[in-house]
Amino acid sequence: MTLVCPTKIKSGDQVGIVAPAGPIEPVSLKKGLRVIRQMGFEPVLGCHIWERQRFLAGTDEQRAKDLMNMFQDPEIKAIFCARGGYGVNRLLPLLKPRIIRKNPKIVVF
Hints:
Elements: E1 14-18, H1 26-38, E2 42-45, H2 60-72, E3 76-81, H3 97-102, E4 106-108
Parallel strand pairs: 1-2, 1-3, 3-4
């Protein structure tokens, strides 16, 4: 396999915001979105970013769907994770490597 590199992101690009692990507090997310906008990017929230399932930000399926939706959306140029944590590892079996490879994007954890 050859190495696949994502394109460079630039000011004005839309970046996806997902919560692939634990839930994010609204105040923290608001601060983070402000920083992302100051960097020149336009944040787009994942559909399930406000979900809660025990100590996680929604079910494994919901969190994986948000991540995969961001990879498949041609308008999204990079993906920022609102926070990391243990729950990310649980998504690995639910991700679609071929889709990710066809749509390489910078992912910021």
